[in-house]
Design goal:
single chain; alpha+beta; 5-stranded antiparallel β-sheet; two-stranded antiparallel ribbon; 7 strands
Length: about 150
């Protein structure tokens, strides 16, 4: 009889494990509302993480969450903001950065899948930054040629 109870307990634990959703925690803040959001320390073995804005992500049903850091540069007043938060819609590039040139402002959007990875430290290496900048310049040059 105890063997049957043990088997039921194991089966129940397995079902509960498959039904559970693994959550990720990301920094969630905006420098427009909280100036200290700009200098958060990313979680690394040598750097202690600033946990004041680290919160659970709550993705919609069927979606997987990831962390995102967006740097917005406004052209009109040369101001920039940093937004950190959760993402649920798959981005063009995962675990890397890409740029978006919008009317009146530019964005650098970085995504990552590790807990607390959207801190202040760059999410890209030097080579990725260089490739991103070259790609942005080429894209802007092509857009300028196409418009004229």
């Amino acid at each position: 009889m105890s063997t049957t109870i043990f088997i039921y307990a194991v089966c129940l634990a397995l079902v509960a494990n498959f039904m559970s959703v693994s959550a990720i925690r990301c920094h969630q803040c905006n420098t427009h509302d909280n100036e200290d959001c700009g200098g958060l320390v990313v979680n690394t073995p040598r750097a202690q993480r600033d946990n004041q804005y680290l919160k659970d992500c709550a993705p919609p049903s069927g979606k997987e969450a990831f962390c995102r850091k967006t740097v917005i540069k406004f052209e009109a007043n040369n101001e920039h903001r940093i937004e950190r938060g959760c993402g649920f819609i798959e981005e063009k590039i995962q675990n890397a950065c890409f740029t978006a040139d919008n009317e009146g402002y530019k964005q650098i959007i970085c995504t990552c899948a590790d807990e607390g990875c959207n801190g202040a430290k760059s999410l890209m290496g030097a080579r990725q930054v260089a490739y991103s900048l070259v790609g942005s310049v080429v894209s802007l040059a092509l857009a300028s040629v196409i418009r004229h």
